Structures are given as structure tokens and as C-alpha cells.
Amino acid sequence: MNSVAFAPDGHTLASASNDATVILWNLTQLNALRAQPADAACALTGGGLNPGEWARDIPGLPYQDTCPP
Known about the structure:
Elements (H helix, E strand, L loop, with lengths): L2 E4 L5 E5 L5 E5 L1 H8 L1 H9 L5 H7 L12
Antiparallel strand pairs: 1-2, 2-3
Helix pairs in contact: 1-2
């Protein structure tokens, strides 16, 4: 039997598999990522696109500073 269940607090997911193992997954970081995806992307990449990168990768749209200081 395979199954999953969320804890009432929304921070833990339990998964069970046919080999009788149960894994508890901490979802705190995932929940933070889902709440603030732009902040996470800016932190991960070290900043947004500069105007030249924007023009190369997103032509046709006016430049926007996506990761302000």
C-alpha cells in the first residue's frame, strides 16, 4: 500500500510505501518558497537579470528590475 498524509499543521507530510517504510517530510522550506517565490529565486541566483540579459532572454518586453536591492 502506498499512501501520503499531511499533518494538521501543514508543515509535515508522511509517506508510506509497500516495503513498510514511512518517511516524514518537513515542508517548512517548501511552504516558504511557495509563499515568496521571487525572493527565493533572487536569493538562489544572486539577483535578477541585468538589462542586457533581459534584452537577450526576454526580447519584446520592457526591462523590469525583478530583484531590487
